[in-house]
Request: fold
Amino acid sequence: MDRFSEQDSHWVRGTRPVTVPAGSAIVHGDLTVPEDARGIVLFAHGSGSSRFSERNRWVARELQRERLATLLMDLLTEGEADRDQVTAEHRFDIELLARRVVSTIDWVTRDLATRPLPIGLYGASTGAAAALMAAVRRPSVVRAVVSRGGRPDLAESALSLVDAPTLLIVGARDTEVLTLNRFAYEHLRCERALEIVPGASHLFEEQGTLEVVARLTREWFIKHLHRSAIANATQGW
Reply:
């Protein structure tokens, strides 16, 4: 299967660029809101990635098929990203990344197209730690978190405070990161799950492995975000 073929373009026709104020900085993202969306998933990238990551954009399209809006964000400004490519000074600045995720959450709760929607966070690499820290800082609106090949251990001080149901997805061949995710799993006190994808390395480049990631992610967010949307509708929100 060609994951990134033109046949998927139909799912992203409603995508629009957005800008999010984040303290003294402005960060950029791509927002897609399907008709009758029942939730929104914010993608937090890390370790030199961006909103143009093909892997995350493909997973986003799979979520859009299930009436989940997606917002793929660059957590760094263009200048910060350029410096980070040389110095790697920002990619492990979890506090900075978490503040940017919180700013994005706040933007989502104000935007007319997204403010009624339950929020999920999808973090990759160091973005996973930032997502978990943001979930702690916005517990009333973040309904679920998914980490894909993430470094949730870098949010160590916040792990026991996370309320949002959290899914950790790791490749079986990504042994070092798997050890770190097992550490994080033991420190989480919320509803949680650790899924190990057979045959997968860190980037899930092996045939069929990204499809497994998409299925697990989709099922987790459907369970928790759709349930929140139904509860909100019942209460007249």
